[in-house]
User: Fold these one by one.
Assistant:
Number 1:
Amino acid sequence: MNYTYILRCRDNSLYTGWTNNLQKRVADHNLGRGAKYTRARLPAALVYYETFPTKEEAMRREAAIKKLSRSQKERLIASFTEEEA
C-alpha cells in the first residue's frame, strides 16, 4: 500500500509527502531522518493520510495537495477520519 500524508509540525506548518510505509516514515521524520523541512520543526504529528494501490497515484495526490491553499488543506484535515483512509 502507498500513502499520501500530511504532518503538522511544531510551528503549526503543514508538510505533505508520500510513502509506502506510513508508520516508519512518520517515525523517521520525528527522528530527524525525514525531509529537511521537518527536521527544524519537530515534533511532527500525522494529521491526515490517504491510501493508494500504486506509488504513482500517491505521488499524484501529493502533488495535488501541495497545490491547495492552507485553508483548503485545513478543511481536508478537519474532514479526515481514519475509517475513510
Note: Strands lie at 2-9, 14-19, 44-52.
Number 2:
Amino acid sequence: MPWCPVCKNEYREGIEFCAECKAALVESLEEEVYQPFIFGEQEKMIRLQEFLNYGNAGIETKLTQDEEEHIYRLSVRDCDRKNAVKAAQVFLAGEASAQVEETTQESAQDNEEKQPQSYHYYQNSAARAEDNRSSAYTLLVVGGMGFAAVLLVFFNVIPFYRNAGINKYLVCGIMGAMFILFIVFGVLSMRNSKVLFVKAKTENSLLAEMTRWCEENLNAEALDAELFQGEEVAEEQKYFIRAERMKELINDKFMNLDEAFVEHFVDEYYQELFENT
C-alpha cells in the first residue's frame, strides 16, 4: 500500500499523490525515494548539505559521487523538493555575495599595494613668505585707499549722490568696516611673512645638512643592490621603491620631519642621485 512520506497517511493502490500534502506517495515509509536535486563540486555540495540539514530542519539529503563525470550529486525527497529549492536559492545567493565581496577586497588590496602613497603638496617657507608679503602689500594698499575714500565721502569732500533708500552713513559704515578688515588682514599677512622668512633660514640650513648627509651615505648602486638583488623590476616601480627607502633612511637620521618636506627633498635629490648619474 502506498504511504505519504509527509503526513504518514496510507492510501489504497492506484493513488499517486497525497490529498492533504500533495506529496508523491511511496511504497514504504522506510524506503523514501530521493531524487537528484543539484550537482557541483564536493566542497560546495557539502556546505549546501549542511545548510539544508541544519539550517532548515526537516530537509534530509543524500550526497553521492558520479565517478564518470567527477561531480557530486545532492538528492532530496520529493516532499522536500520545494523547500529545498527555496533554501538553495538563499544559500547560492549568499555564496555569490561573499565571493563578490572577497574579490572586491582583494582587488582593493592589490591596488593599494601597487599604487604609491598619496603625495603631500609642499611649498617651501621662502615661497610662502613671499606670497604672504605680496598679499600684505595688496591688502594694505587697497584697504588704505578705500578707507581714505570713505573718509572723504563722509566729510563731504567727495560729493555723495543720494538715491532713494540709500543713506550716506550706512554706506560709509559698511564700506569703512570692509576696508578696515583689509588693513587688518594686510598687517597679519605681513607679520606671517616675517615669521616665514625666519623659518626659511632654518629650513635652508636643514636642507644643506640633509644634502651633505645624503652625499656621504647614499649611493645609487648600493641602494639598488639592497632593494632589488638582481630582480627584474619595471623602471616606474623602481622609483617608488627607491623613494620609500630613501625616506626611511632620512627619517631615521633626522627626527620629526614634516612628511611633505621629506617627500619634496627626496624628489629633488632622487634626480641627482639616479637620473643625473
Note: The two ends are 96 Å apart (CA to CA).
Number 3:
Amino acid sequence: MDKKIKIGIYGYGNLGKGIEIGIKNNKDMELVGIFTHRNPTDITPIYEESKIYSSNNIEDFKDKIDIMILCVGSALDLPIEGPKVAKLFTTIDSFDTHAKIYNYYQSMNTSAKENNNLSLIACGWDPGLFSLNRCLFESILPLGENYVFYGRGLSQGHSNAVRKIPGVKNAVQYTVPYDEAINQVKSGKNPHFSSVKETMWRECFVVLEENADKEKIEKEIKQMPDYFAPYNTVVHFISEDEFQKNHTSMPHGGFVLRSGKTSKNTNQLAEFSLKLDSNPEFTASVLLAYARAIYKMKNLGTTGAISVLDVPISLLSSKTKEELLNKII
C-alpha cells in the first residue's frame, strides 16, 4: 500500500496509548493526532512527535484523517460520542457491553450511513477475535456448545466502569475463571452452566477519594447492570501506594472452547486462547489491523456499521494476494 493510512486517536487512556505504540509497528500507517477531552497542554504523549488536540476541534480534521479510532469507555462514553464522531469520520471502536451491542450497532449504522462513512463496532478480542471463533467453531460443529472463559486478567472496560463511579479515585477489575468449570469442558463432559456465575467471578481493587462512602460504592459496583450484577464480585478497598505497587500492569487472556460431536460417540474439542502481558496493547493491535481492513472496504464503497463478522480476514493483512497464497495459505 503506497499511501499511508492516516489515523486519529479519540481518547487517550490506556487503549489510546496502546494505539500510539502500535502505529509504530505498522509501516503503512501514520498518526495524525490524539484528541482528548482534557486540556491538551496537560498531556505528555509517549512519543515526542505525537500531536495532542482538543476533542472539540475534530471537525477541523474531517478530511485529514482516514480512520478515527475511538478509545473512550463503553459504559458511558461510546453510546453518546460514537454516533457523533461517525458523522465526521470512518471509525473503529471496541464497544464491549455485549448486552447492548445491537442497540449500539443501530445508532452507529444510522449515523455512519447517513454521512457516507463506515463504522466497525465491537472490535477487540472479546467482542472481536473471540466472536470470530465462536462463529467459526459453531459453524463447524453444529452439534455442541460454546464456552468462554476470561482471565485471570485485567478488564479495561470493567475497570473503567468502576472508575466512573463518584468517589472512586482509581480502580482495576480482574476477571477470574473457575478452574473446575474449565476442566469439565475440556474433559468432554459438555456441562450446562445455568449462569455466568458458574464459570467466572470478578475481583475489584479500589482506591477511594477522601471521605467517600465505602459501603455505597461497594453496593453500586456489585449492582451495576451488565458489568457486575450477573457475577460473584469481591471488592477490596486499598491504598494508593498498594495500588501503584501491585495493580499497574495489565495482563489478561482467556479461552473460547467449542465442545461437540460429529457422530454419536465421536467427541471434538476446538479451542482458541490468548495469554496477554498487556491487554490494551494487544487490543490496540487488533484495532489497527482492522483499521487497515475498513480503510480498504471504505475505498470500495462500503458504508454504515459492521462487525468483525463482516470483514474478510485477508483485508487485515498488509500482504498482497500473491503473498498470502504463497506464505499464509
Note: The chain has a mean pLDDT of 95.
